[in-house]
Amino acid sequence: MTTEDKSATAQPADISLANRYGRPKRRMSGKAKRWAGIAALAAGMGFLAWVSTSNATASVTFKDIGYRTTDATQAEVDFQVTREPGTAVKCAVKALDSKFAVVGWKVVDIPPVPQEAQGESADGGRTLAQRVVLRTESQAVSGVVDSCWIPKPAAS
């Protein structure tokens, strides 16, 4: 093999590396960086607006207080509901057996607190204590609130 044959087949190191690993990435232009920054800023402002308005909307929270099983056909569940005083709420309450199977279920309507009764409680009528009696299929060993929500107004 002559010197001419070697130089014809040999490639420079930068070309062979580019063939193996790909070309070096291009840098982002100043204009593209500016638009990316504007888009990130707009997304951040949108996220903050969503967080601040989602906390301002009416919400419902509940807390299980206790339960009592009177016999194999009945259970009582005590719980608290916190919501805006003029808001009606529905809560799903369930009784469970020893294998966590639902043996009793009831949806409870909690009406809004009248305006004149709101001043009687320390928190202005936001938190209400509730006791629900559930009929059960078999002996319940626990009673809990499954969920609470604000019902949609009826369409007229």
Structure in words:
This protein is an alpha+beta fold. It has helices at residues 3-9, 13-21, 30-56; strands at 61-71, 74-82, 89-96, 102-110, 127-135, 142-149. Strands 1-2-5 form a 3-stranded antiparallel β-sheet, with no helix packed on it. The protein has a 3-stranded antiparallel β-sheet with strand order 4-3-6, with no helix packed on it. The N and C termini lie far apart (96 Å). The relative contact order is 0.17. The mean pLDDT is 83.
What are the key terms here?
156 residues; alpha+beta; three-stranded antiparallel beta sheet; 3 helices; 28% helix
In short:
The protein is α+β, with helices and mostly antiparallel strands and 156 residues long. 28% of the residues lie in helices and 35% in strands. Strands 1-2-5 form a 3-stranded antiparallel β-sheet, with no helix packed on it. A 3-stranded antiparallel β-sheet has the order 4-3-6, with no helix packed on it.
